[in-house]
Amino acid sequence: MVKGLPPTLEEERGLLAQGYSLVAGVDEVGRGALAGPVAAAAVVLPLERDLPWFRGVRDSKLLTPKQREDLFPLILEQAVSVGVALVPVEDIDGRGILRATRLAMRLALERMSLSPQFLLIDGMRLPQVRLPQKGIVRGDRLCLSIACASIVAKVTRDRVMVELDGQYPGYGLAAHKGYGTREHLSCLQSLGASPIHRRSFAPVRRLSALV
User: Residue 115: which of 134, 131, 135 has the closest Cα?
Assistant: First the structure.
């Protein structure tokens, strides 16, 4: 069973009526994590069609891992265009998380096979991108293309965190994906920070200093 009300194409189709046929939903994942990269994705959906899987799309946080994995290839195969990007810990610590997040979004847009005409972005705007755009609060729960972007970014980042768990064992990265769970904080206190921990984040800095 899928939780919550489904997001809609209301925003996208309103823009289609204004002449924007390539509307990209943009979202990020991993902004609040203590370890690993921040990910972003951009997705342009076919606005003239209602595909059966649209009904199962939600904000990635409302879906189970299996539901996300099932939707991921459908989005990649049937969207008009998709772009995804990861920005590593070095950039997060060097730039700050907000700038790193915006960088990930810009890179995701650059990696699309078709350049969008209008952007719908979850909760923020991209001042350095010269495209018409709209930031939508809780857009991943309201707007279908943003929700699809959240799924692509989430699945991509989760797979990376599973790989990083093999490189940096002992922190439980495959389970919590770098977020500040009780288990993760306990491991940080025992082991200190690994090379993929965000040392600019206060919990990492504080707990690592105790080792």
Answer: 131
